[in-house]
Design goal:
Elements (H helix, E strand, L loop, with lengths): L2 H27 L6 E5 L5 E4 L4 E5 L5 E9 L3 E7 L6 E11 L2 E6 L4 E7 L2
Antiparallel strand pairs: 1-2, 1-8, 2-3, 3-4, 4-5, 5-6, 6-7, 7-8
């Protein structure tokens, strides 16, 4: 192979590597945006995700909980639910899927799926 062909091939490989890194960084940062107010599609449950990592929720039975959340990986969300004050927390891992004004929380440990619609 001539030097010019090798040079062009190296440049092409570098471009591909740079693009792959950019897409990987963007993909990690572009996880599902959950911040906002959400109402259950069926029932009266509501959840509010704030940009500071806090959440407030009320289930269909009217039980209120709050705590912290963080997005994990591509489609994960982890809740630290407060019980009996600031010092007792329960950690719950789930998957989150966001499509336009819909939010789905999938709790594998409970075999439960919760569907929400964004409240304007």
């Amino acid at each position: 192979m001539s030097g010019l062909v090798q040079y062009r091939l190296r440049c092409q490989c570098c471009r591909i590597a740079v693009l792959a890194i950019i897409f990987a960084i963007y993909g990690c940062a572009a996880g599902p945006m959950v911040v906002g107010d959400w109402q259950a599609v069926e029932g009266t449950a509501r959840v509010t995700f704030r940009s500071d990592g806090e959440f407030d929720a009320v289930d269909n039975a009217g039980m209120a909980v709050n705590g912290r959340y963080r997005l994990t990986g591509v489609d994960g969300i982890q809740f630290e639910v407060r019980h009996g004050g600031e010092h007792e927390t329960e950690v719950i891992d789930a998957r989150v899927v966001r499509e336009e004004d819909r939010l789905m929380l999938i709790f594998p440990g409970e075999a439960s799926v919760q569907n929400y619609r964004r409240i304007p």
